## 1
Amino acid sequence: MKNILLIILLLMSWNAVADEKTWFCTPEYNAGLLKQDDSQSWNAVSFTIDRMIIKQTGTKLEFADDGLFVSLNLNNNCYETTVIDETIISCSSSTQMFNLNPTSGLATSSTIFGWLNSKFNDTPFVVLWKCESF
């Protein structure tokens, strides 16, 4: 009986250990729309975006507290989904989305906050990332 309990405890603790990775992501391409302050016109722009480090625990992604996706840490609405035979991790909030393919290391992100709230000069943009785990 003790051996059975020991085996059950070992199996339960083995499953509790989540796969942890750290991703170093570099922006490859980006595009956005910038609203001119004095007019209602929008112009296509690109940005200088910093590299970022993402910590992955299972399907949970943790972004830097001073980075682009700090608001995703608040709810961390992350889940695994399958898109055309590839499993990706997708995290989203009401105004941001980040998708990571752990197999290829490719990621996409977008934000739409500037379009939704005219008090900010933020702009909607999309970034394509190349990530390496270490």
## 2
Amino acid sequence: MKILIIGGSSGLGAELVRHFNADQISASTGYPIPEAINEAIEHSLNYNVVINCLPDSNQNKLLTAMYNTHHDQCLTTYFITIGSMSWRFNQPGHSKRDLFDWNEKILIRPTTLKHTLVNPAYLWNSKDEGPVEKINKEEIVETIDFLVKQGYNSKSVISLLEIKGPI
């Protein structure tokens, strides 16, 4: 099984690259999104599992275009997207809310593709502070490892997973 991590040069993405010994693309490897969206899509066609760790609205742009291309080519790719539980606090138009809404819409679309949206409550921010205790990256990696092992070869897959840290 070939795994591609998008946004894999730092943070959770880098942990996933190490864990899975996966390939990665990011702005630092010549794939800035949205400028290189077509190149990223073309590159992704060679992978069974694509894990999208981009932190901003470009994540949605890439996921939608990539998902549609994989669907049109009748591939069986398993997409895992790292979102955020912050969608609960934001109106439509916020990137994490739009990502959640997108995930809900694809549930009723007939396709050979699979998608899981993983929403950690709090992973990190630039000041490394937040209202709840930070979730350990290794725990998220273990969760994604489970999803990859269980979801790729099964006929059904978890569509949404929300992870809350200790209170």
## 3
Amino acid sequence: MNNIFLVNWVSTNVIERKTINYDFDTSHIRLAFEKDTHKYASNDEVNEVMRDLGYHSTGYDTEPYLNFNISSESPALIIYRNEILGSH
């Protein structure tokens, strides 16, 4: 997968916050990316891009499903809730 595409998507669709958001993990970001772009990304690719963009993570005991310092109001998580979970 072209990581530049993933980097651009994350940069546009993820909003940073100061604290770790334990309600969402890598898989939620990945599923939103796949739903929005119809392209596949692995959890490891998402983690790498998130770290490269300066996001902080925890949950190394459940890797590759890491929690990051991302806002619940991030477009990516809105896509996840609306398109994957079907809630509004």
## 4
Amino acid sequence: MTVAVYEMAMSAPVSARGSAANCSAAKRAATLQSKTPFHATIAVTPTTPGAFPIEHDEEIWVGNKIYTSLGDNRWISAPLTQNPMGGFTGPISGFKDCRSVPSASIRGEMATGYDVKMESGRRVKIWISPKSGLPMRDVVDQDILLATIEFDYANVRAPATH
């Protein structure tokens, strides 16, 4: 999975607080996540079975760097040259038409669900922790693939790079 696909999905977090329709909660949560180190596990599946193999990726965002797993406990790093909330969708000011979706249990915690229309026009489903206001899961349907990103914020540290 490319960083660009991940950045697009990352630009969508919303919070369980505030009005869903005006997306002010989405803007607050995106700002919060952009300042919070996190570990992301990413599963990319084709929307047409067999179109390409399922991919599993891992990334850590901490400090001003993104670390990408190469597998076998090897990581590479790159500086963040833009706000991680940008990606392909544009600035968080472009969030609109936020809708509630059913809550989901994620790692034993009930998370509040939202569907957000991004500046790009693409819709992203996000589940937010009511305790922290941070996203726990994003799901992006990019027509040919479905990217599911799980976020963890506990004890995030930069890995050793090779």
